[in-house]
UniProtKB/TrEMBL annotation:
Transmembrane helix is among the record's keywords: yes
Domain of life: Bacteria
Protein name as it appears in the record: Uncharacterized protein
UniProt keyword list: Membrane, Transmembrane, Transmembrane helix
Spans traversing the lipid bilayer: 6-27, 39-59, 65-87
Length: 96
């Protein structure tokens, strides 16, 4: 079960990374572009951390702490998805 949670979260973070780079293309300059660059760097860092935790704990037996950690990381990936959708909506509203 823990491995499934890690794989789902990692796939979601890969999708978030792709989406973040697409959004960055919509606002390449200015303060919004700068903040999107920072956001994308944090998304990539989070995805790499997710991958590292998954690799380091892959063969460990599932215990309560590992399940809680996997759920926290999965919900963190969902949070990143929601933030990216909010940024997309804001950029569309600014376009007019």
């Amino acid at each position: 079960m823990v491995q499934i949670l890690f794989v789902l979260g990692l796939l979601l973070m890969v999708y978030n990374t792709y989406t973040g780079l697409q959004i960055k293309g919509l606002a390449p300059g200015g303060i919004i572009g700068e903040r999107l660059t920072q956001l994308n760097a944090l998304i990539v860092f989070f995805a790499l951390g997710y991958l590292l935790v998954g690799v380091l704990t892959w063969s460990r037996p599932a215990d309560t702490l590992l399940v809680i950690m996997a759920l926290i990381l999965l919900f963190g990936a969902i949070f990143v998805l929601l933030v990216l959708r909010l940024v997309q909506a804001i950029l569309k509203a600014l376009e007019g």
